[in-house]
Amino acid sequence: MSKNVFLALSLLLLLFLPTLVQANVELLNVSYDPTRELYQDFNRAFSRYWKAKTSQSITIRQSHGGSGKQGRAVIDGLAADVVTLALAYDIDEIADQARLIPKNWQKRLPNNSSPYTSTIVFLVRKGNPKKIRDWDDLVRPGVKVITPNPKTSGGARWNYLAAWAYALKQKGGSEAKARDFVTRLYRNVPVLDSGARGATTTFVQRGQGDVLLAWENEAYLAVNELGKGSYEVVVPSLSILAEPPVTVVDKVVDRKGTRKVAEEYLRYLYSAEGQEIAARHYYRPVDKAVAARYARRFPKLTLVTVDSVFGGWKQAQKTHFSDGGIFDRIYGGGR
Amino acid sequence: MQPATTHKATAAKRNGSVSEPVAVRWVLIAAALLFLALFLLLPLAAVFSQALEKGWAAYLEALRDPDTISAIKLTLFTAVCCVPLNLFFGIVAAWLIAKFSFPGKSFLVTLIDLPFSVSPVVSGLIYVLIFGLQGWLGPWLQAHDIRIIFAVPGIVLATLFVTFPFVARELIPLMESQGRDEEEAALTLGASGLQTFFRVTFPNIKWGILYGVILCNARAMGEFGAVSVVSGHVRGVTNTVPLQVEILYNEYNYAAAFAVASILALLALVTLVVKTVAEWKIQQSLAGPDDKR
């Protein structure tokens, strides 16, 4: 009996040993769903850069999931050195509910703390059999639209707001018309996945739906890597300027003593190399020179901002996505 | 001698009324086999064919990935923590419930069953509520730099909770059906409590224990819901095998996802075999040598 106990204990020790002896710097980047490939590349580049600069080895850990869920995990104590989420509201929540970062976090880095921007486009099947050209085509009867749940997914909230903004900006557009438009759109949604990645999998792997509302980068990933020639990207006439922001989590980096490297990590996203990597993964770079070099990659379209159309994320969240908000009413009552 | 024989006779009668006629037994076996083929063998075949879609080299490559190896290590570690603890608690609880009578016994049984009736997600959230930064103990833990959730201890705790009933639930009916005459006899003959347990009770329940352990282990390694809530999904640190499968799948890395899933599938197969053997042995030990017709 005691021999077995000893065996079990030594086995435990053996398994724990690696976590006890690691001494180099470790950063945890808590991010949203579609940035997996981006940060895989960027982390490699930053480790190289940091090693050359300080001769210190660095391990960067990643955690990915729906933006809202990830923000919630940080609030509940997931020790993220940096968060790179889909929208400012989810980081605001970390500031408001857990007070891990100051309220003015978004003013600390250039371009509202968004080192890259993106937008929402359509992904359709090869040859565009349902002839989907613009938002109006999504509300036609018989068109199945795949988009994730705005309650849990950051990307889904951008999708929703883009549709709303489009309807609002049409001739004679009004709040009531926009609401009617979005209601009809969600009537064409057969299933709400919890995150952007899940929605893409539903569309690509399970072959559901006629059109996927997706992040631009996610759409191109599907086109280039998942099924060359099986999908096409359709760029609508108007969409929303998505600004996925980043920040250091002050309370965590101060406790772990990683502030310097964490801040450098985020600043490096704005460097020429960081911007190149973002552009290669179809995130729109904010650096003018890099943007010019990759201009062909990113089609021109009218982009509206959350601030100009919805009065900022706090307001948009309250009106549209909070409990009992417009989304609850149209999705609950629409079916 | 007289009282013991009567006891044996009633025990035999009780067993006789519980087992079914041969025809019913075969129908049940056929139904079970059909069920297994549909719900176990078919998906199993699918998992392995998908896993080997790109050949053996890709399969082994997927299993050699550092994040996958760390997920396997974490899963083994979790099982190594949970199974012995739940084995101990399970035996103690079953012993208490089956061999003694005391007030509040049925309440204790209900309590043991609780993890079965609670959704795994809720089991995970319980720990977030207790140990999370916004939870009861969160601020104190933070101040002392102790990490429970979104770290290995949280994963072990959640798994411990979810797998708690397996050993006890398996042993209670078995021990109850065996009654306590043998223990009473041993005690009358001057055996100590521990002697009674190891010489009399343990040999009777050893197959039941194995059965419980194997189920407990399978669940500990396969648990997704509760662990997903407390894991934080930090790659190479807090992902268990089931979580790693989901990640790979979501990264469009289907062959690798199924390769890792095949480990869990193999575990299921081994579980099934050991479980079948244990079940058969339990049947034998329950039937007893003088029950042969």
UniProtKB/TrEMBL annotation, chain A:
GO terms for molecular function: molecular carrier activity; sulfur compound binding. Belongs to the prokaryotic sulfate-binding protein family. NCBIfam families: 3a0106s03, PRK10752.1, PRK10852.1. InterPro entries: Sulphate/thiosulphate_BS, Thiosulph/SO4-bd. GO terms for cellular component: periplasmic space. The keyword Lyase does not apply. One of its GO terms (biological process) is sulfate transmembrane transport. It comes from Geomesophilobacter sediminis. Residues 1-23 form the signal peptide. It comes from the Bacteria. This is Sulfate ABC transporter substrate-binding protein. It is found in: Periplasm.
UniProtKB/TrEMBL annotation, chain B:
InterPro entries: CysW_permease, MetI-like, MetI-like_sf, Sulph_transpt2. Residues 72-275 form the ABC transmembrane type-1 domain. Keywords: Cell inner membrane, Cell membrane, Membrane, Sulfate transport, Transmembrane, Transmembrane helix, Transport. One of its GO terms (molecular function) is ABC-type sulfate transporter activity. It is found in: Cell inner membrane. Its main location: membrane. The chain crosses the membrane at residues 23-48, 74-98, 118-136, 148-168, 252-274. It is a multi-pass membrane protein. PROSITE patterns: ABC_TM1. One of its GO terms (cellular component) is plasma membrane. The complex is composed of two ATP-binding proteins (CysA), two transmembrane proteins (CysT and CysW) and a solute-binding protein (CysP). Part of the ABC transporter complex CysAWTP (TC 3.A.1.6.1) involved in sulfate/thiosulfate import. Probably responsible for the translocation of the substrate across the membrane. This is Sulfate transport system permease protein CysW. The lineage of its organism: Bacteria, Pseudomonadati, Thermodesulfobacteriota, Desulfuromonadia, Geobacterales. The gene is cysW.
